[in-house]
Design brief:
The chain contains 21 helices and 14 strands. Strands 1-2-3-5-4-6-7-12-13-14 form a ten-stranded mixed sheet, with helices on both faces. A two-stranded antiparallel ribbon has the order 8-9. Strand 1 and strand 2 form a beta hairpin. Helix 7 packs across helix 8, helix 12 runs antiparallel to helix 13 and helix 13 packs across helix 15. The radius of gyration is 28 Å and the shape is globular.
């Protein structure tokens, strides 16, 4: 009998051991189950696949929150490309943006990403994406249903040709001509705003902004590189606005950031465009750049520059001849019958082409040839460029539904961002009248740029945001501050001759951020942003920054000119740090600026 209690105790000890074992097993089982649940709930990595456009690139899609502060708003797809690093010592990723806004970052990457990878040293994967509303993004700003339909709306209006400026725009008669054109522009802006409100909807458009894009970049970085990864960025033109938003909204995540051809984000976000305060700043070097290229044309001579003549005594001879041609067109436009799309050339069309030409030195000889042939009576090539309607045989484009390519629709994509960022008007603020806008334009013409002051105003449909259904709708936009302390000092770059983002704009951006946050790289080169060929001096600064994280001492570096005459030594291969090739630029019915690229 006495043995029984002992066996019972042993059984109890045995039961206890089993229970402990079961408990431990339960904990382990729960751990592994939870791990599996967590694994299942975690976002899968992007399913990268070779891009059909170029197998060296990988293409993928990532769903991001429509509203980063409201999960109930659902998700939208962000289309991406990745160009892998070439060096074994991988240093992460570099985000790029094509400027504009308006074009597809995915499409642009096949042209520009290799140059950017080379410029940054080859140690980073280059990541490009279609910004909300642009390219393949859904929803898309396809308000008119097709590119052809918007082209028909846009064609032969001031949207396409920009203002025809009278010989004396400051006279009562001259001002009246401009006012009439501005009234047409306002009517077009109101009409397209109403169409977009009906077909796309203000709610969808309200989620398209630079602020939202920054949070999209942060989410892509988190998925690819981890929660705490610093964000590297390389861009120009409007991309400099995105860059300033990025580093000031996420100062603790600022990695190596290069922005070239700068637009002050504070003015972009907080000043009504129609005041032309921003435009006056951005056009500060337009006439200087125009004169520089005409000097280059004169020195190159007729063999290399079509606008030059053997009888010219200096660059002023060329300038006078072009001005006389513009004046003649103001009196009588040039009829063009020998074209697949007949039409006529206006003075505004010539100003537009000149202004685009001096932004893109690689393609300057081609543009000047268009103008020279028009001056001799054959305007077919110039008209084709102004209309931006390319036949399918053109290797630079692909056909639309009727066999032609229409690029004007990208203006609507641009408006989704620029007007999405724009400062809304209060109920007490009346939108400007045509007369008030023209008076502001005349101030720009008088004080800053006689030739292009009224041209740039219409190239960018940045005005009229009070008609845009996405202005002031949706999540709050970031409006500053713009001088937050950054985790990494950034590199701000300017060219000595840039007709739309001058040195003074780059200086303002750097001063706003402070020398502790930004270094200003200034090179003696001509062209807008990264369209200008980089000097080796600048290339070395950029590469060392991205590879070693080192910037020169002090607040500013200046690089001397290294290239010969722009017409004699046209850069066929894009230089280190190039953003876009000319064929992409030619496809754009807008400048590659913030105002415009």
């Amino acid at each position: 009998m006495g043995a029984l209690p002992l066996r019972a105790a042993e059984r109890r000890r045995g039961y206890g051991a089993v229970l402990v074992a079961l408990a431990l097993f339960g904990l382990v089982w729960r751990h592994w189950c939870l791990r599996d649940v967590i694994s299942l709930s975690k976002e899968p990595a992007i399913d990268w696949k070779p891009c059909w456009q170029d197998p060296e690139f990988l293409c993928g899609v990532l769903d991001v929150p429509t509203d980063h502060d409201d999960p109930s708003a659902g998700t939208i797809p962000i289309y991406l490309t990745k160009l892998p690093a070439t060096k074994p010592e991988r240093l992460g990723i570099v985000f790029t943006h094509p400027g504009g806004p308006g074009g597809s970052g995915v499409d642009a990457s096949f042209v520009s990403a290799r140059s950017i990878r080379n410029a940054t040293g080859g140690h980073h994967d280059i990541i490009s994406f279609d910004q909300r509303g642009q390219g393949r993004a859904r929803p898309n700003v396809n308000c008119f249903g097709s590119a052809r339909a918007y082209y028909d709306f846009h064609s032969n209006t001031v949207f396409q040709t920009t203002f025809s400026v009278p010989r004396d725009p400051f006279s009562d008669a001259g001002r009246a001509v401009l006012v009439e054109q501005q009234r047409q522009a306002l009517a077009l802006e109101e009409t397209q705003g109403a169409v977009c409100a009906r077909t796309v909807g203000k709610e969808a458009l309200g989620y398209m902004s630079t602020t939202a894009t920054v949070y999209d970049i942060e989410e892509i970085s988190r998925v690819l590189e981890g929660e705490d990864a610093l964000i590297n960025f390389y861009s120009g033109s409007y991309g400099t606005v995105l860059g300033q938003y990025l580093v000031n909204m996420l100062p603790h995540k600022t990695g190596r950031v290069y922005i070239s051809g700068n637009v002050p984000a504070d003015m972009w976000a907080n000043v009504h465009y129609e005041t032309q305060e921003l435009l006056r700043l951005l056009l500060a070097d337009a006439e200087k750049t125009y004169t520089f290229f005409l000097n280059e044309c004169f020195e190159a001579g007729p063999k290399h520059c079509a606008l030059s003549r053997q009888t010219d005594t200096n660059a002023q001879s060329i300038k006078d001849r072009i001005d006389a041609f513009i004046d003649r067109l103001q009196e009588q436009p040039l009829a063009v019958a020998n074209s697949t799309r007949p039409g006529y050339i206006t003075s505004g069309a010539v100003r537009l082409t000149l202004f685009l030409a001096i932004q893109m030195p690689d393609y300057l000889p081609r543009f000047f040839t268009y103008i020279a042939r028009a001056m001799d009576g054959d305007g077919a090539e110039l008209l084709r460029f102004v209309k931006r309607a390319y036949p399918p045989s053109d290797p630079e484009t692909g056909p639309d539904e009727d066999g032609y390519v229409y690029i004007a629709q990208e203006n609507l994509s641009r408006l989704a961002i620029s007007c999405g960022d724009a400062l809304p008007r209060t109920e007490e603020e009346q939108p400007p009248t045509a007369e008030e806008i023209v008076d502001a334009t005349l101030g720009t013409v008088r004080d800053v740029s006689p030739r292009f002051g009224a041209t740039a105003h219409m190239i960018e449909q940045h005005g009229g945001c009070h008609y845009w259904p996405g202005t002031g709708v949706g999540p709050a936009r970031y409006r500053g501050p713009w001088n937050n302390t950054l985790a990494t000092r950034i590199l701000v770059a300017s060219n000595l001759y840039d007709p739309i983002t001058p040195i003074s704009a780059g200086t303002l951006v750097q001063h706003t951020m402070g020398p502790a946050n930004a270094h200003h790289l200034i090179q003696d080169a001509a062209g807008h942003s990264t369209n200008a060929p980089n000097t080796q001096c600048a290339a070395q600064v950029i590469r060392r920054y991205f590879v070693e994280g080192v910037l020169p001492e002090g607040s500013e570096t200046r690089c001397a000119r290294e290239q010969g005459n722009y017409f004699v030594h046209v850069v066929r291969e894009r230089g280190v740090g190039a953003q876009l090739l000319g064929q992409e630029i030619l496809r754009n019915d807008r400048l590659l600026l913030p105002l415009a690229s």
